[in-house]
Write a structure and sequence with these properties.
Layout (H helix, E strand, L loop, with lengths): L4 E3 L4 H12 L4 E3 L6 E5 L3 H11 L8 E3 L6 H4 E2 L3 H10 L4 E7 L5 H4 L4 E5 L4 H12 L5 E2 L14 H8 L8 E3 L11 E4 L6 E4 L5 H8 L26 E4 L8 E3 L11 E4 L4 H17 L4 E4 L8 H12 L3
Parallel strand pairs: 1-9, 2-9, 4-7, 6-10, 12-15, 13-14, 13-15
Antiparallel strand pairs: 2-3, 3-8, 4-8, 5-6, 6-7, 10-11
Bound molecules: threonylcarbamoyladenylate (TXA) and magnesium ion (MG).
């Protein structure tokens, strides 16, 4: 297959071109504030099927539908509880996905046959421009998982998208380059189908922020079946072996806060100043370890109950290996 087109000049014309390509059934990889997504028209069954084949993703793993604003919620969801509206109002556009009862527009090929749908308004100028152009020509929403092969790390740059899935895209597909992602870990997923919000995947929107917004205590009721592919223990894994501890030895890669020194012979992959920067750099640091062909990377886990929860979650999955 020949290479997808790479668009780094995301002008209004380019976005109109990309929206038209989506409407034509092409796949468009695009930046969001969390990670890059691989998008298709969420009402086009064949286009959505191509997402699954490009990613090698099992068909029962549902996709998030990206929408231009919370005004489009009711197109895709029904029985929206008040607390979900509070969350949407407070955190969209932003790194948060709401799981809601689906409307008739959300077909089985989006929801993996479940009666719920995941919805998100991303906070990235290119993603929003694309969504708005798509909406203008009658598009209802863009289905987009992270733009990586199943089980791998999510890409946080357009270059990483190209390396992950470029060879499986065709010459009419597009990769939009919007620079490195500002958040760096995937959105917080919140189940809004019971009386209280429940976190299915931690992210930059934290438990405290959710409780503050909704006035409700987060439900920690466990779900039986795995409905979230990101909840598989070995998801988000690089090739390199990830070791969670504080001390690295010569030959190992090392990810730790800037105030930790690099021991002799250790390959420093990231030195974040704070937890937000840790999240932003994490996946590119692990990708670099793979590029360098390292055998082991030591990551010092950040302490805290904010975005640190998401970082520790992804680190522990990465440490479980592929
Ligand atoms: O930050 C993000 O959320 C990125 C950007 C591109 O928006 N997207 C992303 O998508 O991480 P994906 O498909 O890689 O991960 C979404 C997760 C999957 O584990 C999927 O199973 C889960 O969301 N999900 C989607 N719809 C769901 C639903 N109706 N019920 C439960 N889980 C759902
Ligand atoms: Mg993913």
């Amino acid at each position: 297959m020949s290479a997808p087109q790479f668009l780094s000049n995301c002008t209004a014309d380019a976005m109109a071109f990309a929206a038209a390509a989506l409407k034509n059934g092409q796949l468009i990889a695009f930046p969001t504030e969390t990670v890059y997504g691989l998008g298709a028209d969420a009402t086009n069954k064949e286009a959505v099927a191509r997402i699954y084949s490009v990613k090698s993703r099992p068909a029962d793993h549902p996709l998030i539908v990206h929408i231009a604003s919370m005004n489009e919620l009711e197109k895709w969801a029904s029985d929206i509880p008040t607390f979900a509206v509070s969350l949407a109002r407070d955190f969209w556009p932003g790194p948060m996905t709401l799981i809601l009862a689906r409307s008739r527009l959300a077909k089985d090929f989006i929801t993996g046959g479940q009666d719920t749908v995941g919805l998100r308004v991303p906070n990235h100028s290119v993603a929003l421009a694309l969504l708005n152009e798509f909406s203008k020509i009658g598009g209802a929403g863009i289905a987009a998982p992270s733009a990586n092969r199943f089980g791998h790390l999510s890409p946080t740059t357009a270059q990483a998208v190209q390396e992950e899935i470029g060879e499986f895209l065709n010459e009419k597909d597009l990769i939009l380059d919007g620079g490195p992602c500002a958040v760096g870990v995937e959105s917080t997923i919140i189940d809004c189908t019971s009386d209280a919000p429940r976190i299915l995947r931690p992210g930059a929107i934290t438990a405290e922020m959710i409780e503050e917004s909704t006035g409700l205590k987060i439900s920690d009721h466990k779900i039986e079946e795995i409905r979230v592919s990101g909840s598989l223990e070995n998801h988000y894994a690089p090739i390199v072996k990830v070791i969670l501890c504080d001390i690295a030895i010569a030959g190992q890669g090392f990810i730790a806060f800037a105030n930790t020194e690099t021991p002799e012979g250790v390959i420093r992959l990231a030195s974040p100043e704070n937890s937000e920067e840790y999240a932003r750099l994490l996946y590119s640091a692990l990708r670099r370890a793979d590029e360098l062909g390292l055998r082991e990377v030591v990551a010092v886990q950040p302490v805290g109950i904010g975005i640190e929860v998401a970082i520790r979650d992804r680190l522990s999955r990465a440490a479980n290996g592929r």
